[in-house]
Every structure is written in C-alpha cells, then in structure tokens.
Amino acid sequence: MSGQDPGEVSPPAEAVAKPATKKRSAGRNLPVAIASGVVLYAWILGSLLWWQWGFIVFLIAGIVVGAFEIWRALTGIGMHVVYTPIAVGTPLTLVTAHYLAQHNGQLTGAGVLLAGLALMVIACLLGRLRGPVRGFITDAAASVFTIGYVPLLLSPLVLLLAQPDGNLRVIYYFILVPCSDTGAYAVGSLFGKHKMAPHISPGKTWEGLAGAVALTCIIGAVLGPVMIGASWWAGAIIGVVLSLAATVGDLIESMIKRDTGIKDMGRIIPGHGGAMDRLDSLLVAAPLAWLTMLVLV
Question: What is the tens place of the pLDDT at every residue in 163-212?
Fold first, then answer.
C-alpha cells in the first residue's frame, strides 16, 4: 500500500536519515542576513528622510508581498484567498488615504482607509462567487483574514506619516519595535526560565518579555523628547505599548506557521525568509503606534 515498486530495494536506514540530519543542521547565513537588514533599513531611513513617497511604495510592496505569502500558506491547508482585489486595492487605498490625510486631516484619511479596506472585502466576496458553493465560507474567511491581518494592520503607517513630523514618528516606530526584539532576545537568552507560550513559541519567556518592555520603555523615554517632541513619560508609554504589541505580533505569526506547517513564509529576503517573517512584530504595533502618537504627542 506504500506505492513502492515490488522489485525496488529499499535504501539503508542510514541513507534515509542523512538528509533529515542535514536539514536540521541548516541555519541562516548570518552575513547575508545582516547585509539584507542593512539594505532594508537604509531604504526605510533614506526614504523617510528625503523621499517619503518612496517609503509608501516600499510599504505597499511589503503589504502586497506579505498578503501573497499568506495566500500561499492558507492554500496549503485548503483555504483559498481571492488575492487580486488585495493586490489592486492596497496601493489605491494607501496612496489616497495618505494624500487626503495630509491635506484634509487624519479623520478624512482614516475614513478613506477604512472605506478602501471594506471595498476590498466586498470585492473578495464577489470574486469568490464564481467558485463552487462548497467551501465559500472557508475561502471568504481566508480573504477577510488576509485583509485584516496585513493591509488593515500596516496601513495606519500612512496616517502616521501624515502627522506633524510624521517621518520622524515612523522612524521612532521602526527603532522601538526592533529594540523590543533585542531586549527579549538578550534577557531571555541569559535569564529566561519561565516559558510564555511553549505550545506556540518555545523560545519566548516571561523574563524575555520583561527585558523587552524595560528596554523599549527606556529608549522610548529617551528618544521621545528628542525625535518627536513627546514628554518623557509619553515616550515611555509608547515604548511599553509597542513592545507588548510586537510580542503579540510574534506569537500570532508563530501560530500561523504552526497551523500551516511551514518554517518560513517565503524566501524573498536573503537570510531572513519572507516579507511576513520581517513584518510579524511590526504588524500589531503599527496601528497602536499611530493611535498612541496621535493621542499622546
């Protein structure tokens, strides 16, 4: 019943086990990963300082590619996303929302953003009507999940960019979230004993979370008055909120990977994996960055 030809001789057990051993020992290419990270952050920093529309193009590309990776992951477990409305609607929505937020205020930009996302949902539902009846709810849920997880969570960055000194606020966000990851890794690797969610991410510990929150709180308090004109206490609050949000984002991404049975969401970024492998902690933090800086700064 195995499908093996009766005359075929089975290979020795050692030959079968060898590829698996090789796969377990494979790791990321650290120099390539560092080089890729430097290039990405150089583009983000340079575009935010000198050509802000370049950052919006970069953000749109990240959302479109990230949504494609979610589409591919969900397809592997029998859930089919209607992808075209997301790929077409994302650039139209983000560009329009940013422009109107700059010229007509945050409320107008936010309204256009929500309207564009709602139209994407409607277009995905209409697109799925062409398929069979069976599986409609599952596929519709996959499309709505993809829109809610990637475009909805990341799109507030175009509103943040439209705030006063918005480019510095976005840079502040891109500093604090990696600080959270760094604090969690440093403290967790040295002192981590109590697992946070071993069934999702065995490496995460409560000690690591404490280190992440503490470091991000301090960096937020120090840089807030310098970069975005916030009070030190407001910077500290923003740091704490973004650190907790980044941790939740990591856990959500890990849960998706475990449910779909994949290690990396893609291979578009050398040494890192897919776009979603870099966006995980940034996703949940983005709307909270926009909201906290809108209210506290």
Answer: 999 999 999 999 999 999 999 989 988 998 889 988 888 889 999 999 99
The answer as to whether 24 is a domain residue is no
The residue type of 282 is L
Residue 45: give the domain boundaries: 29-296
pLDDT tens string 211-258: 999 999 999 999 999 999 999 999 999 999 999 999 999 999 999 989
Total number of domains constituting the chain: 1
3-state secondary structure the chain: CCCCCCCCCCCCHHHHHHHHHHHHHCCCCHHHHHHHHHHHHHHHHHHHHHCHHHHHHHHHHHHHHHHHHHHHHHHCCCCCCCCHHHHHHHHHHHHHHHHHHHHHCHHHHHHHHHHHHHHHHHHHHHHHCCCCCCCHHHHHHHHHHHHHHCHHHHCHHHHHHCCCCHHHHHHHHHHHHHHHHHHHHHHHHHHCCCEEECCCEEEEEHHHHHHHHHHHHHHHHHHHHHHHCCCHHHHHHHHHHHHHHHHHHHHHHHHHHHHHCCCCCCCCECCCECHHHHHHHHHHHHHHHHHHHHHHC
Q: 173 in a domain, yes or no?
A: yes
pLDDT band at 262 (very low <50, low <70, confident <90, very high): confident
Q: Is residue 12 part of a domain?
A: no
